[in-house]
Amino acid sequence: MRFKFRRLLTPVIVLLNLSLFYVVWKPSGPADYSFIIREFEQFEHDLEATISSIAVSHPSRKIFIISDDIIYPPISLKNCSSNCVLVNRAPAFHKDFASQYPLQAIDSEFIFLVPDSTELPEHGILEEMLEYLERRSIDFLALRYKSTEGSDCLHANVNIREWFLQLSYPKQKNVCNILHGKHLLLARKTALMKLSDPFMQPFPEALYVQMSALNFTIVMHPKHHVMDGKPLFTSQHNQWKKNQLDLKRRIEFFKTMGIKKVINEKEFILWYL
């Protein structure tokens, strides 16, 4: 009787071991990711070409275009009508909570934050970024553009109790929490969900300050660059208009978040009272 029981038990143990082996060694599928375009201006942009570049190179991925108001004149979404989602953050009676906060609607684990006027490569670089992030215990990975190879990667100290923000040069060249210049950013959704409002203006400056307050860091990818699209704000008037908008948004952001003094990396003090 004992012998028969052992004969019956043996294949069960073998099957359990095989199941465990499969679970442990089962190859993981491709990373689940989406795209967000937040960094653009209504009065001059290259949105259609940027969206088309993403849609052609990553046709099955969702693209969320986030604005503070209705984009006018309307943009063409002919290359990704089914995968493109326009998110207007302006409050209105007919909108529910989730419609103004796109993270509620994004079910992917990773999110690429893509600035306007971008030409994405068809394959390779973004997949390498995903693999780089997945293999390390980091939440944010940045990629420079050809036009911003010499851009600054800075450390930020947000002192909430004393209402100031202090910038300095980091100890590690490619690890920081404030980026100056044009960058593509890969983020874990779980990290973005911990921020008060990751899409506040001026974007992405306001995003980086919020990340700094929670001690998140950004790692700069050591190898690749992204190609720029059409040059923007080439006229003196539009560049002035862009600078004025950023200044106004910066003042509103610091007022909202209670920051009254900013000490930049050259120890120059700016007051926001």
Features of the shown structure:
nine-stranded mixed sheet; five-stranded mixed sheet; 273 residues; 7 helices; 14 strands; globular; alpha/beta
Task: Give a structural overview.
The chain is α/β, with parallel strands linked by helices and 273 residues long. Helix content is 31%, strand content 24%. The protein is built from 7 helices and 14 strands. The chain has helices spanning 2-25, 47-57, 97-100, 125-134, 189-192, 205-213, 236-257, and strands at 33-37, 63-67, 84-88, 110-113, 118-119, 140-145, 153-159, 164-168, 175-176, 178-179, 183-188, 218-228, 261-263, 269-271. Strands 1, 2, 3, 4, 5, 6, 9, 11 and 12 form a 9-stranded mixed β-sheet that branches. A 5-stranded mixed β-sheet has the order 10-7-8-13-14. The chain is globular and about 50 Å long. Mean pLDDT is 86; it is low at 8-28.
What number is the mean pLDDT? 86
Number of helices: 7
Q: Specify the biggest β-sheet.
A: 9 strands, mixed
**SS-based structural class?**
alpha/beta
- Provide the succession of SSEs: HEHEEHEEHEEEEEEHHEHEE
Helical fraction: 25-40%
Task: Give the termini separation.
Answer: 87 Å
From the alpha-carbon coordinates, what is the Rg to the nearest angstrom? Answer: 23 Å
Number of strands: 14
Shape: globular
Proportion of residues in extended strands: 15-25%
Low-confidence stretches: 8-28
